[in-house]
UniProtKB/TrEMBL annotation:
In the N-terminal section; belongs to the enoyl-CoA hydratase/isomerase family. In the central section; belongs to the 3-hydroxyacyl-CoA dehydrogenase family. It catalyses: a (3S)-3-hydroxyacyl-CoA + NAD(+) = a 3-oxoacyl-CoA + NADH + H(+). This is enoyl-CoA hydratase. Residues 325-497 form the 3-hydroxyacyl-CoA dehydrogenase NAD binding domain. CDD domains: crotonase-like. Residues 591-611 are annotated as: Disordered. Pathway: Lipid metabolism; fatty acid beta-oxidation. Keywords: Fatty acid metabolism, Lipid degradation, Lipid metabolism, Lyase, Multifunctional enzyme, NAD, Oxidoreductase. PANTHER family: TRIFUNCTIONAL ENZYME SUBUNIT ALPHA, TRIFUNCTIONAL ENZYME SUBUNIT ALPHA, MITOCHONDRIAL. SUPFAM superfamilies: 6-phosphogluconate dehydrogenase C-terminal domain-like, ClpP/crotonase, NAD(P)-binding Rossmann-fold domains. Gene3D superfamilies: 2-enoyl-CoA Hydratase, Chain A, domain 1 (3.90.226.10), N-(1-d-carboxylethyl)-l-norvaline Dehydrogenase, domain 2 (1.10.1040.10), NAD(P)-binding Rossmann-like Domain (3.40.50.720). The keyword NAD applies.
Length: 699
């Protein structure tokens, strides 16, 4: 009964058309005309929490447009019944496994015909938008004559993140609606425009509170809302030479972030606009053809695979965590950033450290993060209120979850555990952010080891999506389930891994970093080593990555793995030990392999030798070999989880779909043969793992 009441009240909070009306209902759409002759077309996709544009949804839209064309109302309102937003884009599940460009062209041409019918309606079509309006949803809205945004709405074209560009008319409708350079920037970057920005761009014609939606609709139908369309740049960039100059600048800016051979979509979009930007019909045809070719290509197929791997990991984070108060012990970079992230996601956080100045620095960093990422002053204030400096450590007694982030030393962590366990309340979880120490070692001395779990975040915490949820043979199932649900509650991806030296991600990274260190030891310029990895597709090279992780942490992990693993690894260079002893621990210290400027950017030599042929294999193949070993040793359950974890925690070349996917695409035999050749040349650390024999297809 209460659920029914809540639903009724929720409906009253949103203006969704006439209540007492004869609604025409299909599976996903419903249509009714109000007393003033305005048709309300409401999308409420069945059995889904959010609206997306599937082929079935589009076919039903065509049927509803037929009804509207016959009835001839004064205006048409398109609205979402979902509380979370308008439309989140196309349903890419429809394209899973479709790799024939000709079939995609056929399907997209049909979809374009439906959207064109919406754009050609003789009466004003009005998109009323709340929450997210993304991808195909924004393209549908652009086909309407007016767009009315409910305050708080957000707009964007995230297709570039899937190796695509807009494919349902966005490439020609958005540049015609707003400043073409701003339009191209939105599509090339995938960045979101929130309500205020969208209004200033002219992307929406009005911004209202929900209670004023009906009045805004009446004004639009009456034609009393001023329509924004283009600006002086629209005319200038309608000329070929001006567009060529702008396109040249766009390519240069895009090449700083992505390579055309790795991520072709943004470059294809620039080509289409440069060639056809003054001819919407030609641009539409080029958009469909280009979209189909990209979707059928390897980059989009691998990025779409990662989308589904992300969804799979998200699914592991569902459930009730029962955690509203987090106590973080250790206010260093990791601890402070974990505390700030949790506070930004709505949890109460107490942050403790023996050094009061460390807490002060952590709160200062949190403030900068809140200012940058939280979009309203109220959100920033609330996040600050939830982040509580805890100088005497009293928060541990009230917390639902205690996370230690102290030095990566077994004795220090055990001492923290012993003190915390005495104060923790029944039912609270004790978590360690250790990056490499097996939990079987850390749990020794605990009275209740069932409440201990590993929650291994990655640096930088505010950007890396993955958290390793580390189990051990005495961990309680409820503890593990709540830990995974906690990750979901703070918008992080839980990857279940078994307790073992280095767990999964650091175990996989160790040989990659160690080989890079060895190359530097051999006299190869550090910039050259990084360039070899970047040419492969890594977002940064292993030397810069080591600086970001922290050379002290790299050294501790290398020592621990060398002691605990029965597999050959390069010796730790003495110069690395000396760097750490001198405090040159990387980016956090301002100096490591590289020196860092005030913005934390490395100062790299501009002229460095190009990588030698095969250098990337020396770095990447040991990483692949260790992935296979971890899978064989059951540190992770399956190849999909492994691929997702390595990409989302390390940034492993996303367009390759994950390390095991890359091995599959390259050919298992070729990878094993190349490892064997490297073994002959460089030693037993390259010996192919026996797990290659039983490795199945990734994905």
């Amino acid at each position: 009964m209460m659920g029914f009441v809540r639903n009724v009240l929720a409906d009253r909070e949103m203006t969704l058309g006439p209540r007492a009306a004869d609604w025409k209902r299909l599976t996903h759409w419903r249509l009714a005309t109000d007393a003033e002759g305005v048709a309300w077309l409401v999308l409420d996709r069945a059995l889904e929490s959010a609206n997306t544009l599937s082929e079935e949804v589009m076919l039903e839209l065509a049927e509803m447009l037929g009804e509207i064309e016959r009835a001839g109302p004064k205006g048409v309102v398109i609205r979402s019944a979902k509380r979370g937003g308008f439309i989140a884009g196309a349903d890419i599940r429809d394209f899973r496994g479709v790799t024939a460009a000709s079939e995609i062209v056929e399907r997209m041409t049909r979809a374009h015909g439906i959207v064109d019918r919406l754009a050609a309606l003789p009466m004003p079509a009005i998109a009323v938008i709340h929450g997210h309006c993304l991808g195909g949803g924004l393209e549908l809205a652009l086909a309407c004559r007016y767009r009315i945004a409910v305050d708080g709405a957000s707009f964007g074209f995230p297709e570039v993140m899937l190796g695509l560009h807009p494919g349902l008319g966005g490439t020609f409708r958005l540049p015609a609606q707003i400043d073409p350079v701003e339009a191209m920037t939105m599509m090339l970057t995938g960045k979101t425009a929130y309500t205020k920005k969208a209004r200033s761009l002219g992307l929406v014609d009005a911004v209202v509170e929900e209670r004023h939606v009906e009045n805004a609709v009446r004004a639009a139908v009456a034609g009393s809302i001023k329509r924004e369309r283009g600006n002086w740049k629209t005319s200038v960039l309608g000329l070929g030479p001006a567009r060529q100059l702008a396109a040249k600048r766009m390519r240069a800016a895009t090449e700083e972030k992505a390579r055309p051979e790795h991520y072709p979509a943004p470059f294809r979009l620039i080509d289409i606009w440069e060639e056809h930007g003054d001819d919407a019909e030609a641009m539409q045809k080029a958009e469909i053809r280009s979209f189909a070719e990209l979707l059928a290509g390897p980059t989009a197929q691998n990025l779409i695979r990662l989308f589904f791997l992300r969804e799979k990991l998200k699914g592991l984070g569902k459930g009730e965590a029962g955690i509203s108060h987090v106590h973080v012990i250790g206010a260093g970079t990791m601890g402070g950033d974990i505390a700030a992230w949790c506070a930004s996601r709505g949890l109460r956080v107490t942050l403790a450290d023996l050094d009061p100045q460390a807490i002060g620095r952590a709160v200062g960093r949190a403030g900068k993060f809140f200012d940058k990422k939280l979009h309203s002053s109220l959100d920033r204030r609330d996040a600050f209120d939830r982040l509580i400096p805890d100088f005497d450590g009293s928060g541990v007694a009230a917390a639902d979850l205690v996370i230690e982030t102290v030095a990566e030393r077994e004795d220090v962590k055990k001492k923290v555990f012993a003190a915390a366990e005495k104060q923790m309340r029944p039912g609270a979880i004790l978590a360690t952010n250790t990056s490499s120490i097996p939990l079987e070692t850390l749990r020794a001395g605990l009275k209740d080891p069932t409440r201990l779990v590993g929650l291994h975040f990655f640096n930088p915490v505010t950007r890396m999506e993955l958290v390793e949820v580390v189990s051990h043979d005495k961990a309680g199932e409820e503890t593990l389930a709540r830990a995974r649900a906690f990750c979901g509650a703070i918008d992080r991806l839980p990857a279940p891994v078994a307790s073992a030296p280095g767990f999964l991600v650091n175990r996989v990274l160790a040989p990659y970093l160690a080989e890079a260190f060895l190359m530097v030891d051999e006299g190869v310029a550090k910039e050259t080593v990084d360039k070899a990895a970047e040419d492969f597709g890594m977002p940064m090279g292993p030397i810069e990555l080591a600086d970001r992780v922290g050379l002290d942490i790299c050294l501790e992990v290398a020592r621990m793995l060398g002691e605990r693993l029965d597999e050959p690894m390069p010796d730790i260079p003495q110069w690395l030990v000396e760097k750490v002893d001198k405090g040159e621990t990387g980016r956090k210290a301002g100096r490591g392999f590289y020196d860092y400027d005030g913005d934390g950017e490395p100062k790299k030599a501009k002229e460095a030798p190009s990588p030698a042929e095969g250098m990337a294999d020396r770095l990447i193949l040991p990483l692949l070999n260790t992935c296979v070993r971890c899978l064989r040793e059951k540190i992770v359950a399956d190849a999909d989880t492994l691929d997702g974890a390595v990409v989302f925690a390390t940034g492993f070349a996303p367009f390759r779909g994950g390390p095991l996917r890359y091995a599959h695409d390259r050919g298992k035999k070729e990878v094993v043969d190349r490892l064997a050749a490297l073994e002959k040349e460089h030693g037993p650390r390259f010996k192919p793992d026996k797990g290659w024999d039983k490795l199945g297809e990734a994905g």
